[in-house]
Amino acid sequence: MDSINLMMEEHQYILRMLKIVRKACIGIMNGDTINYEDFDKMIDFIKNYSDNHHHGKEEKLLFNKIVEHLGALGNKLITHGMMVEHDMGRLYIRELISSLERTKQGDEESRIDVIANAISYTHHMKRHIDKEDSVIYTFARRQLPTEILEKVNNDTINFEESASKNGTQEHYISLLESLEKKYLS
Known about the structure:
Elements: H1 3-29, H2 36-69, H3 71-104, H4 111-143, H5 146-165, H6 168-183
Helix pairs in contact: 1-2, 1-4, 1-6, 2-3, 2-5, 2-6, 3-4
């Protein structure tokens, strides 16, 4: 297994979800009622697939090896770059959840906060994914010793085996596809 290729494939699923989030926000902007159930599904995907599953692999398996083995530059790229960006994405999602709750409680003005946080998250994640795919992963492949990359690959196999017992990939890809049918067809 090539763990970096797998992470890049997962980015494609995440980008597909970002299109759905954007389309749902366009509906809100055009006066549609907020579909809280669908937003719960989008947030579930973002928190559990994008963040816990995908970012979990990056943070636990790849990024720590970059920091550990690639000195000051590796530390700067990860600690002051990618980890800060992961936290920024989490902040947008916390704010989205909060604004959805306020809107659900009757605060109509918070509809703009729903859109602002959701769209800010989509813009942030598109830039973040591009940076990981074109810079961070390339840097890791070029600079990490082969035996470290093999360790990351083997750890990724174990991570995925554990996740497959829970049906993580299948569940979230199915959820993604159902939302795509509703919002992008």
